[in-house]
Amino acid sequence: TPGTVLITGTTSGVGLNATCALVKRGWTVITANRSPQRAAAAADDMDLPKERLQHVLMDLGDLDSVRRAVDALPDRLDAVVCNAAVYKPKLKQPERSPQGYEISMATNHLGHFLLVQLLLGRLQNSSHPSRRVVILGTVTANSKELGGKIPIPAPADLGDLSGFEAGFKYPVAMASGKPFKPGKAYKDSKLCNMISTQELHRRLHGESGITFTSLYPGCVADTPLFRNTPKAFQTIFPWFQKNITGGYVSQALAGERVADVVAHPDFAESGVHWSWGNRQKKDGQQFSQELSDKATDPDTARRVWDLSMQLVGL
Ligand code: NDP
């Protein structure tokens, strides 16, 4: 049953292609971006029908902007996709959000954490047979998989959460309270995305009936996510993923996979982290990918939840 879905970060990449796939399946998409103008232009370039789209201003890095955007949303939503992200591996010093938090944790995790909390009521109001919250995770933050074991610059690790506990503001930049590593800050934020999904499932699936899932669509090695990496990396990385690891997927296929997790009856189970076997093939089968202890430990998840609640002001 096609419904209305809100997707964050649709100016390019996975979010834009998921928008396209869902519109083609009959859904209405509300896009949430820091530039609704650029989101509209990107949708136009894909020839998407304007009447099935609504573009709202939402800067995920700014909690006030998330709140303002939510206030103006309709009171009923059938699905939400948390897709927007920044990856800034070349930063020498942490960049800060308007609230003073390290920018990748602020944008990728805290903005989405607040967004989902604020949208729960609207999802409850929906009469759609399968209401879903879908969060983009990644292989590099799951040490159960080979891609999550690569120690460059360091594996995702929230340590003792002392940075979280200290409030994440200057001089703190990392969840662990340890020195700033920009590439790791991204991985840590994505680990928080997967932890949040698991905790949303544990706390809220039973009473709300909402399906909470995360996914790794494959390595979409040629999206603008990698715009802040060295130029040579931007050439070599897609080639390496296509020819050596076999992990590469096209942006269009990644978009179809997100659309499946939002809309297909086979993806109605809550608490699952979806991945695909035979990642490059169009008919590669989805499976429930086991997550690392770091992503599933209930004690860590409870603390991440409580501390995130405080940091977003709930
Ligand atoms: P892109 O850089 O193409 O897309 C990121 C989107 O997020 C853009 O639309 C960007 O908009 C938006 N965005 C960034 N900052 C903000 C903000 N403050 N407020 C609102 N929107 C913002 O990257 P991908 O498509 O590759 O990544 C999408 C998701 O997929 C991410 O969550 C990523 O972690 C995940 N992922 C990607 C993989 C890959 O291989 N590419 C693999 C696994 C997961 P703007 O134009 O304004 O910057």
TrEMBL record:
GO terms for biological process: chlorophyll biosynthetic process; photosynthesis. The keyword NADP applies. Pfam families: adh_short. The keyword Cytoplasm does not apply. Signal peptide: none annotated. Keywords: Chlorophyll biosynthesis, NADP, Oxidoreductase, Photosynthesis. Its EC number is 1.3.1.33. One of its GO terms (molecular function) is protochlorophyllide reductase activity. It comes from the Bacteria. Pathway: Porphyrin-containing compound metabolism; chlorophyll biosynthesis. PANTHER family: PROTOCHLOROPHYLLIDE REDUCTASE A, CHLOROPLASTIC (PTHR44419:SF19), PROTOCHLOROPHYLLIDE REDUCTASE C, CHLOROPLASTIC (PTHR44419). NCBIfam families: LPOR. Belongs to the short-chain dehydrogenases/reductases (SDR) family. POR subfamily. This is Protochlorophyllide reductase. The lineage of its organism: Bacteria, Bacillati, Cyanobacteriota, Cyanophyceae, Synechococcales. The gene is pcr/por.
